[in-house]
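Researcher: Batch entry, complex prediction.
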Amino acid sequence: MAYPPEFLYTKEHEWIRVDESVGTIGITDHAQKELGDIVFVELPKPGDRVTAKETFGTVESVKAVSDLYSPVTGDVTAVNSKLQDNPELLNSDPHDAAWLIRVRLKDRTETESLMTADQYEAYIQSAAH
Amino acid sequence: MPLLWSVRAKEERYSEPYPSSLEEIGLATPAGLPLKRTALNAAHKVAGARMVEFGGWEMPVEYSGIIQEHVAVRTRAGLFDVSHMGEIEARGPAALPLLQFVTSNDVARLKTGQAQYSALMYPEGSAVDDCLVHRLGEGHYLLCVNAANTDKDFNWITRHNTQFGADVRNVSANYAQLALQGPLAATILAKVTPIDLSSIKYYWFTHGECCGVEGLLARTGYTGEDGFEFYFPPAQADLVWSALLGAGQPEGLIPAGLGARNTLRLEAAYPLYGHELDEETTLLEANLGWICKLEKGEFLGRDTLLKQRSEGTRKKLVGFEMEDRNIGRDGYPVAIEGEVCGRVTSGSMAPFLKKNIGLAYVPPHCAEPGREIQVEIRGRFAAARIVPLPFYKRRSQEPGVRSQNEEKKD
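Model: Structure tokens for the complex:
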């Protein structure tokens, strides 16, 4: 799966797509491969505040629980309700249909420290053996 | 020492904090020794396995995915490399009295060619390990033990052997072990062995040829399905592995890893040492009274078990189902009416039953099916309910008999 060039990426394998002041956040294809079969996702509610570099929920595979880290600070405007009944969507379509939350950005400059698609691909290549 | 990707599971260690985001971990045993590898290590990697550390070994946790592998075993067949398990041989006229003393089950009942599930015992009534005891012949037994406990078990048996004088050897290095499990296991195996499989009953074994290799073929397993375990020389491991996968291709046989092995045994409510069993838990507390033959004569732990049988136990193992979609995992606290009084020993999403299930210890007076309990998940109580065990029981071999699971589906 290619890494969309319009996304920005974190070292914790989340992606964010920024449209004006709203960011859509998800996990990358690399993340879903590492997790294996995803069976449950715990997400915040609309209106909750998320903070850059802090956890905003968890994604669970059969064997493990992993924290989700927000790339940005802001208020949650939407949560993907499809993931309640179909968490496996995160395995099949992590970059599109399985987006996690949408956030109204408090500070657009926070995205400046994130990786581009090329930088993220290089990052996951270098970490893998 | 190559660095390999691994997802660290909170449930594997009670005392560690929740895992942070995906991170690379170096694979090494606590003592800093390199991980042991089975003879099929390279074959697993070629098959695309994700490898993890388990009991000091580098093992495949999954190939195509835990859910797929689990469902394959329940509906067709899966092939597991379980060569990391240990084998201990006991020989001589003192072998029987030795094993009678250190294990809970009645070894004297075994006929040649028969195996029994048992436990190596502490005087406290708890298990050093759970194991299978096979009677190879008069005064000749083979134990199959857990990988992480092999040395501990051998040392424990040896220590008690001073009063018996049997010939006891750790022969783990002599064996590779493969488990072929599932309703189609016999159909697949029949293509590659001259042995008449219908003559091997459940928990019996024979010596014979499989894929042209001599070994011990047992009708045993840890999945709750029909199946076989084959013990044979490690030099032939690649040959047997490939031959079985080839023979099983028309039936949809796939390799299966430790991830599916765990979810399968959990659905069948089989205990896992280090979770439902440990040195602090007696066999009666773990619902293993059926492998404690208290009338067989003296054995380690018998006094404690006799006492608990008349006075009661401190805790009891129960099965539970989560009410919602969240998952009560290994190590999570269990509360009843808001008060923490127990702990989950194993908990997971169950891929065949499509529920979230688990095993937990609770006070004996709270252990009845139907009772509402709470599992603490990341600081919040989640609703669950005690259910009868096992969660899953396979369809009986006899025609006309249906398992409880089949009835539910209609």
